[in-house]
Write a structure and sequence with these properties.
15 strands, nine-stranded mixed β-sheet, alpha/beta
Amino acid sequence: MATLRAGLIGLGMMGRHHGRVLAGLEGVDLVAVADVMGEDPHGVAKGRPLCSTIEELIDQRLDYCMVAVPTVYHEDVALALAAAGVHTMIEKPLAQNTPAAEKIAAAFEDAGLVGAVGHIERYNPALQQARSRLEAGELGDVYQIITRRQGPFPARIADVGVVKDLATHDIDLTSWVRQQPFTSVAARTAYRSGREFEDLVSITGQLADGTVTSHLVNWLSPFKERVTVITGEKGAFIADTLTADLTFHANGSIETTWGDIARFRGVSEGDVIRYAIPKREPLLVEHESFRDAVLGKDADIVTLSQGLATVRVAEAVIESARTGRTQDL
């Protein structure tokens, strides 16, 4: 395997994890890191050059770069990397708004470069298994996909609200696991923590094949929850991405003849299976996939066009909440 020269810009909470994975990634040499503050609070550099601008980082003769700066800086950094001919993966969301995301996607396409977005939930073992089993027809027709993503407010997030920071995970994974785009969304938001951005959103959506979706996302819960429920004609999958567990609740095939129990429990309850699945770190799998894409191999990456579609849906969610109207996509 050829050794690729990689760089990392953005050394905050996410940047430190990207740096850890890149430093040990087979076939990759993390040659330099950068942060606009010129600081390395988590000790990511470990003796490597610490740059303070994207231009300094590009001068390190990079093959590819990981961008983990705040969302508002994605456009400027990504466009500089595209102009320099550097393959790039950008933390989600792709950009702060649709026009910026369009510029980024166009720049990398015009330059013939590999670009990707770091929607890490796609690489969670539970969701990888769910998608594989859906494609194998194990659930039959899919009727509904519900996600719940709740927890306390992370003080490190200052430039976007819960829709673009957290709900973009659910928008992307829902479209990806079903392999269908969103066609409409309706949403309500709340502002409870004194910030200018929303900290709670409830979304109802529909995919192109008619699948109904529902997404509850907030930064106001004292517990952390990351759950996806996929309901179909043969039962339901429940994917817990905190524990990477996938459970199947089958529709029952044995009639309950005891009337009182039937009324209490329902007549369609069947076997429950929690699958034993390999559980590799999603961030490592994500970086392996991008490395392989840069090398020209078949790889499952979140393309820039897919990242752009997610930003468009997120902005439709915000517009729906603002106007009180369903937004068609």
